[in-house]
Amino acid sequence: MSFLNELRTKRHCLKPTTTTLTYLDGRKFEESGPDALVEIPRTQFGFIVDAKPDNVPAKIVDYVYLGSQDCCDPQVLGRFDINNVLSVGVDAPSKCEKIAYRFVQCLDLPQTNLLDVLKESVCFIQDAV
């Protein structure tokens, strides 16, 4: 018996399976065969909900910190002596007059050109330090 014939005879022994497909817009579909595609209704957000503040920035090198939007609180900025804030993707939620801010648009999509984001970000960081 040829290998191809062996595969054909064993095909019925395969366990059925389903695959979940997630599209860029967050919609999900379940595929269980060549013609069986069913949309899965949304029961939750397409992202993780941030339920507790993360207001401690991480020191990368002297004068450069990395943190979440919760770190934009004026008290946090003062505690770490931060004078410049670069926000990538999401604009800083609160602003203080003593702080220099720069917002760089960046969408979490495969087609986003990260080189453009980096060029604008690096210029601001170099001027800040």
At the first level of CATH, the class of the largest domain is Alpha Beta
Number of strands: 7
How far the N terminus sits from the C terminus, by CA atoms, comes to: 72 Å
Determine the CATH topology of the largest domain: Protein-Tyrosine Phosphatase, Chain A
Radius of gyration: 24 Å
- CATH superfamily of the largest domain, called what? Protein tyrosine phosphatase superfamily
Low-confidence stretches: none
Discrete helix count: 3
List SSEs in N-to-C order. Answer: HEEEEEHEEH
Q: Give me the secondary-structure category.
A: alpha+beta
Mean pLDDT: 87
- Could you tell me the strand content as a percent range? 15-25%
The largest pleated sheet is described as: 3 strands, antiparallel
CATH architecture of the largest domain: Alpha-Beta Complex
Number of separate structural domains? 2
Adjacency order of strands in the biggest sheet: 1-2-3
Helix coverage percent of residues? Answer: 10-25%
Overall geometry comes to elongated
InterPro entries: Prot-tyrosine_phosphatase-like (IPR029021)
GO molecular function, one term: JUN kinase phosphatase activity
